[in-house]
Amino acid sequence: MDAVVKNFPKAAAATPASEKAELSEHVRAAPAPSKPQPSRQEAEAAVRTLLAYIGENADREGLVETPKRFINAYEELFAGYKECPADVLDRTFSETGGYDDLVLVRDIPFYSHCEHHVMPFTGKAHIAYVPTGRVVGLSKIARLIDVYARRLQTQEHLTSQIATAIDEILKPRGVAVMIEAEHTCMSMRGVAKAGSLTVTTQFTGLFRKDPQEQVRFITLVRGGQR
């Protein structure tokens, strides 16, 4: 199979000016860390402060190791800050037998955290694109979702970023993204409406220009749900 590796670098500074112009900032590189970035010891101390704030004793047996575990969990939950979307989609394949219709990956589970309350929101993403001669490995689409989801997000921004990355890197004839999620900042606090789903969509290319293609995408997504 004929594979092409684009070799987008992880560091934005190493990207040639011609390639920088083609990709959005959030697509071409991982986010730059805050400066100065707190040390792990400072992060663990902050967790101890929060435990004390809610009325807990951070020195009791059950909580002694909690700051360390908390930071370990955060490093995993927010690993997307260290990943570059362009690297995830840098390998495409041309051996498609002339296939030129949509490729749909449906019901991709994900979890993220809202940037307003740092509370989880979880759900499923449905992604479709119409290739122009080359396709990307299906697992790469799921990985791309995780890159953006494992950051502080709003669902609207997450939807837009995924669509933009696929559109700019693969340059397909069109991209369709639908995300359905439940936000715990709405189901566990505030109005406390458990089970409420938020649905967002983003379309580019032929999906944006042709309403019938949008309908076909939504029908394929909804028709296979159980």
Secondary-structure element pattern, one letter each:
EHHHHHEEEEHEHEHEHH
The CATH class of the domain at 3-10 and 88-223 is identified as Alpha Beta
Count of alpha/pi helices? 10
Strand content: 15-25%
Q: Strand tally, please?
A: 8
Structural class: alpha+beta
Q: Predict the CATH topology of the domain at 3-10 and 88-223.
A: GTP Cyclohydrolase I, domain 2
CA-to-CA gap between the ends? 35 Å
Instruction: Let me know the largest β-sheet.
Output: 5 strands, mixed
Strand order of the largest sheet: 6-3-4-7-8
* Helical coverage, percent range: 25-40%
> How confident overall, as mean pLDDT?
90
CATH superfamily assignment of the domain at 3-10 and 88-223?
GTP cyclohydrolase I, C-terminal domain/NADPH-dependent 7-cyano-7-deazaguanine reductase, N-terminal domain
**C-alpha geometry:** globular
Low-confidence stretches: 4-17
CATH architecture of the domain at 3-10 and 88-223: 2-Layer Sandwich
What is the C-alpha radius of gyration, as a whole number of Å? 20 Å
Structural commentary:
By secondary structure, this protein is α+β, with helices and mostly antiparallel strands. It has a domain at 3-10 and 88-223: 2-Layer Sandwich (GTP Cyclohydrolase I, domain 2), CATH 3.30.1130.10. Helix content is 39%, strand content 22%. The chain has ten helices and eight strands. The chain has helices at 17-20, 25-28, 40-53, 66-77, 85-88, 138-149, 155-170, 184-187, 205-209, 211-223; strands at 3-5, 91-93, 103-114, 120-130, 135-136, 152-153, 174-183, 198-204. It has a five-stranded mixed β-sheet, with helices on both faces. It has a three-stranded antiparallel β-sheet with strand order 1-2-5. β3 (103-114) and β4 form a beta hairpin. α6 packs across α7 (155-170). It is globular, with a radius of gyration of 20 Å. Mean pLDDT is 90; it is low at 4-17.
